[in-house]
Amino acid sequence: GVLHEDLRLLLETHLPAKKKKVLLGVADAKIGAAILEELGYQCQTGGVVAEILRGIRLHFHALVKGLTAQSASKAQLGLGHSYSRAKVKFNVNRVDNMIIQSISLLDQLDKDINTFSMRVREWYGYHFPELIKIVSENYTYCRLAKFIGNRKELSEESLEGLEEIVMDGAKAQAILEASRSSMGMDISPIDLINIESFSSRVISLSEYRKGLQEYLRSKMSQVAPSLSALIGEVVGARLISHAGSLTNLAKYPASTVQILGAEKALFRALKTRGNTPKYGLIFHSTFIGRAAAKNKGRISRYLANKCTIASRIDCFSEVPTSVFGDKLREQVEERLAFYETGEPPRKNLEVMKEAMVEANEVVAEVKKKQEKKEKKKKKREKRRLEALAAAAEEMENSVLETEENETEPKKKKKKKKQQVEAASEPEENGLEEEALPKKKRKLVGETVQLDKKKKKKAKELEED
């Protein structure tokens, strides 16, 4: 819907000056409206225009000079890829899709763990039925089933292990006593092995669920700190998931956020002209549970209003902080107290002023930290570049040294030749010959003989 400079230039150069006589066919109605507003050309969309554009796209390679069908298809593919990439990159800093996936997985894990735990209870209950009454928690029951195994083998020695799992000495003693007088049937070792392996699977799933919840908390504190501070990580994540993204949630009005998740009940109420629902997903927050029955609707409306404010702050603020979320939570607490005791809450304007001051301080601190990190990065880069430069200098020096070493032996050879030539003239330098030691005299004599032999051979070759 935005008129690009290139498109403006194209239209201004190729369309006639008389604008009233021109009717321009456009595929997108928004661009048509922008052209009409800025350039004044009448635009038409749909109908015949769509068919003409389809024909142009089909025969585009024939209409444009120097364009083949293959290159046109490649261009279309490239355009499609770049468009998709731009759409994906539109919301780079927001990782709310990770939150959506993790909360969906968390809900699925809750259902699965519950189902599997019931299966363990039924399976192991044939052997040790009394354990169900003593231990009600699924995770602890599965750990006990794995630890105890055959109840007949349970003794005073295993009391410490039971205490570690149950975290209660009386319960551990009760389990030991129940195992001695149990009404359960005997069980074969292979059945026990299967029950233990299945129990260990359920335990590992429960432990993974805990890790996933921690991951969700960390993600929510990064993406939507105000919303998670106000309503909690899990409920906030559910709201984001139901809306589709944090941006979508920020666009919703408070009335929609209030009944988000209760669409079925809403449409049923509208159809039957009954009472519409007061709350949807926000019912899981602690505020509505703490409110009196007559105030539940009022507090849910107030909470939905604060949730929309928090989601908008999280979505559109440059540096997301939990300051606003904490202040909004305080406001909801004050409203609850007002319904119960009649104590008037603070005005929204006062609370937001305080929040702004605190938020500015937090943002300043964050920026300082970022600047420090950038400085450290720059220092590291400088050190790395200096190290690289030093390494390059060392390499150059080593290359020069090797070149010098290669040239030095040549000079030595020349010196040796000169010495040999000087020694080959003993008659002229009689005094020098006498000054030489005996060993050197022998070497000089041998070299002279070799030179004579070489000269003889050269003469013979010339004669031949």
UniProtKB/TrEMBL annotation:
<dbReference type="InterPro" id="IPR002687">
    <property type="entry name" value="Nop_dom"/>
</dbReference>
<dbReference type="InterPro" id="IPR012976">
    <property type="entry name" value="NOSIC"/>
</dbReference>
<dbReference type="GO" id="GO:0031428">
    <property type="term" value="C:box C/D methylation guide snoRNP complex"/>
</dbReference>
<comment type="function">
    <text>Involved in the early to middle stages of 60S ribosomal subunit biogenesis. Required for the biogenesis of box C/D snoRNAs such U3, U8 and U14 snoRNAs. Part of the small subunit (SSU) processome, first precursor of the small eukaryotic ribosomal subunit. During the assembly of the SSU processome in the nucleolus, many ribosome biogenesis factors, an RNA chaperone and ribosomal proteins associate with the nascent pre-rRNA and work in concert to generate RNA folding, modifications, rearrangements and cleavage as well as targeted degradation of pre-ribosomal RNA by the RNA exosome.</text>
</comment>
<comment type="similarity">
    <text>Belongs to the NOP5/NOP56 family.</text>
</comment>
<keyword id="KW-0690">Ribosome biogenesis</keyword>
<keyword id="KW-0539">Nucleus</keyword>
<protein>
    <recommendedName>
        <fullName>Nucleolar protein 56</fullName>
    </recommendedName>
</protein>
<dbReference type="InterPro" id="IPR042239">
    <property type="entry name" value="Nop_C"/>
</dbReference>
<dbReference type="GO" id="GO:0042254">
    <property type="term" value="P:ribosome biogenesis"/>
</dbReference>
<comment type="subunit">
    <text>Part of a large pre-ribosomal ribonucleoprotein (RNP) complex, that consists of at least 62 ribosomal proteins, 45 nonribosomal proteins and both pre-rRNA and mature rRNA species. Within this complex directly interacts with TCOF1 in an RNA-independent manner. Core component of box C/D small nucleolar ribonucleoprotein (snoRNP) particles; the core proteins SNU13, NOP56, NOP58 and FBL or FBLL1 assemble stepwise onto the snoRNA. Interacts with NOP1 and NOP58. Interacts with NUFIP1, RUVBL1 and RUVBL2; RUVBL1:RUVBL2 seem to bridge the association of NOP56 with NUFIP1.</text>
</comment>
<feature type="compositionally biased region" description="Acidic residues">
    <location>
        <begin position="393"/>
        <end position="406"/>
    </location>
</feature>
<feature type="compositionally biased region" description="Acidic residues">
    <location>
        <begin position="424"/>
        <end position="434"/>
    </location>
</feature>
<feature type="domain" description="Nop">
    <location>
        <begin position="223"/>
        <end position="341"/>
    </location>
</feature>
<dbReference type="InterPro" id="IPR045056">
    <property type="entry name" value="Nop56/Nop58"/>
</dbReference>
<dbReference type="Pfam" id="PF01798">
    <property type="entry name" value="Nop"/>
</dbReference>
<feature type="region of interest" description="Disordered">
    <location>
        <begin position="390"/>
        <end position="464"/>
    </location>
</feature>
<dbReference type="GO" id="GO:0030515">
    <property type="term" value="F:snoRNA binding"/>
</dbReference>
<dbReference type="GO" id="GO:0032040">
    <property type="term" value="C:small-subunit processome"/>
</dbReference>
<dbReference type="InterPro" id="IPR036070">
    <property type="entry name" value="Nop_dom_sf"/>
</dbReference>
